[in-house]
Amino acid sequence: MGPQRSAIRAALILLILSLFTSAASAQQVSLADKVVERVLANGLKVLMVKDSNTPLVTCLLAFRVGSVNERPGITGISHFHEHMMFKGTRTMGIKPGTFEKDNEYNRQIDALEAEIVKEQSKIKERDEAKIGQLKEQVSDLIKKQRAETIVSEEIWSAYQQAGGTQLNASTGNEMTHYYVTLPKNKVELFLALEADRLQNPVFREFYSERDVITEERRMSENNPGYFFTEQLNSAFYAASPYSWSVVGWMSDISRISKEEMTAYRSQYYRPDNSVLVLAGSVDVEPTMALVNKYFGSIKNPPGSAPRVRTEEPSPEYYRRINGPDFKVPYIEKRVIGKAAANPYVTIMFHIPPVWHDDVSVLNVLGDVMSARTGKIYLDLVLNKEHATSIGAGASMSEYDGSFRVRATMKEIKNEPVVPIAQLEKELWDFIEEAKTVPCDEMVLQRVKNSNEAGYLRSLAGTNLAGSLERMEIIYRWQFIEEQFKQLMAVTPADLMRVAKKYLTRDNSVTGVLEREK
Q: What's 37-93+151-295's CATH class?
């Protein structure tokens, strides 16, 4: 045996051994052994991950609220509210001794804004001059308030002065969260500030911040293809509130009132609708004493946070509601658009929420279809050179989700190399093949190896914090490990089964974006 063949054989042996070692490691690591769960009497769930290798603590407070909890008229309010949570409380964000004066400014501004809305709502004989005068008065009051009572970005400054890093907040479809990484001895600051924000927010600079939000949307609209993507998503979700973006419709966010935000907040920002995650140098019992100190006395409003009950009218929904013999109506939708952007084809299919057993299989199917060693990439990107990229994947949604298959057209001097209809047909050919031809075992194994490596990385150090809060919000945190086991058990037969079940034309919406000339 020559030296080159010996080296190859040795490398293969090492690869096989590493795969066995990795698999054994994944089986030995138990998520339950790494996480401490506590629940306060008011329903606040606390998840702690102890990691003695770092002197820092990653702190996250997540609320089970996002764009799916909105309704027409107040779309975008979750994201807007996230912004307002940095405007201060009864004691933060204002100069000492100016609370009443600040409140008086807010009352005057609110009254003027109510007059503006009243005048703007007139269908006939709207007094534009009056509206202009009222807006000038509001602007003058805001300037005085900022000069006399407001301390801008005080919450940010408090965290930064305490050595906080990675400080931010974000809003998604199902979750809004606030997070920062702090030295161990500053965790109490996080608990004090966040408990204060939960109990005592004051929506200062509401109307000027509303203008900031609308400007954010305008900036997004400048991206080529933004409107097409928005309309495609809206067409796909006919009933579900996933049909609008997190930022919301412009006509809503430009008119949301402070009263609407106050009412919305009281429904969702409550201890029994939130999750606190602390990961890093955490001493469990002393930390829980602090959590109880700051959050334990916070009461929930009457009732409970409303949940989304609308389901997408997909073929699977019709069969589940009306029985397996029900004749499902054939409905296939298409959205055609043009923009100064790379042309692409996206085919979307309705799938169940994250907790459904089929979603793990669909996740693997998406990875297999996207693989650079898989059939679609080798054929469309490398061999035929009809596309520059391909991708597929399943969403991890609390409610009805989506599976997407996408190919971006290759162009030469802004001209497609083949008609875009041909690229769409080629995608469908591969989709149909996935229903009857078993996946290549080597491709499937590589996908599983990649998923396993990602899972192990997610358990290392404080990386787990984000995964915990996300999964707890949309389902339950223990499902992280359960889903991993499901992924590793997927077979080629499973992939064909879910492809047949979900990747059908009457369960699809196709989006075709062409280049605008």
A: alpha beta
CB atoms under 10 Å from CB of 109, counted, come to 22
DSSP 75: T
Q: State the Rg of the chain over Cα.
A: 26
> Out of 3-12, 152-161, 284-293, 427-436, which region has the weakest mean confidence (pLDDT)?
3-12
Question: Where do the structural domains in the chain lie, given as residue ranges?
Answer: 37-93+151-295, 315-515
Q: pLDDT at position 194, please?
A: 98
Q: What is the pLDDT of residues 359-382, one digit of tens each?
A: 999 999 999 999 999 999 999 999
> What are 356-365's pLDDT values in tens digits?
999 999 999 9
DSSP label of 410: P
Is beta strand 45-50 parallel, antiparallel or unpaired with respect to 35-39? antiparallel
Residue 211: band (very low, low, confident or very high) from pLDDT cuts 50, 70, 90? very high
User: Is the pTM for the entire model greater than 0.85?
Assistant: yes
The yes-or-no verdict on residue 27 having pLDDT over 70 is no
Beta carbons within 10 angstroms of residue 467's beta carbon? 16
Task: Enter the DSSP assignment of 298.
Answer: P
CA 355 to chain centre: 16
Beta-carbon contacts of 396 under 8 Å, excluding residues fewer than 6 positions away, are 354, 359, 363, 474
87, 90, 95, 96: CA torsion to nearest 10:
-160
Which residues, in sequence order, are CB contacts of 394 under 8 Å at separation 6+? 351, 359, 362, 363, 365, 366, 401, 402, 403
The answer, yes or no, to whether residue 41 has pLDDT greater than 80, is yes
Phi/psi class of residue 289: alpha, beta or left (left: φ > 0; alpha: ψ in -120 to 50)?
A: alpha
User: Residue 408: is it exposed, middle or buried by C-beta count within 10 angstroms (0-12/13-18/19+)?
Assistant: buried
What is the DSSP track for 92-115?
A: SSB-TT-HHHHHHHHHHHHHHHHH
Question: What residues form DSSP beta bridges with 159?
Answer: none
Per cent of the chain over pLDDT 90 is 91
Q: Could you give the CA distance from residue 507 to residue 312 in angstroms, rounded to a whole number?
A: 11
Please report which residue ranges of 200-283 form alpha helices under DSSP H: 206-221, 226-236, 250-253, 258-268
The CATH number of domain 315-515 is 3.30.830.10: yes
Q: Please, are residues 376 and 434 in contact by the beta-carbon 8 Å criterion?
A: no
33: phi then psi, degrees, rounded to nearest 5: -75, -20
* Separation of alpha carbons 517 and 59, rounded Å: 49
For residue 474, which of 36, 65, 4 has the smallest C-alpha distance? 65
**Per-residue pLDDT, 37:** 98
What is the 3-state secondary structure of 133-181? HHHHHHHHHHHHHHHHCECCCHHHHHHHHCCCEEEEEEECCCCEEEEEE
Query: What does the block give as tokens for 396?
Result: 């991890």
Distance in angstroms (rounded) separating the CA atoms of residues 118 and 255: 12
Rounded mean pLDDT of the chain?
93
Question: For residue 339, which phi and psi values (nearest 5 degrees)?
Answer: -160, 165
Nearest to 407 by CA among 370, 382, 373: 370
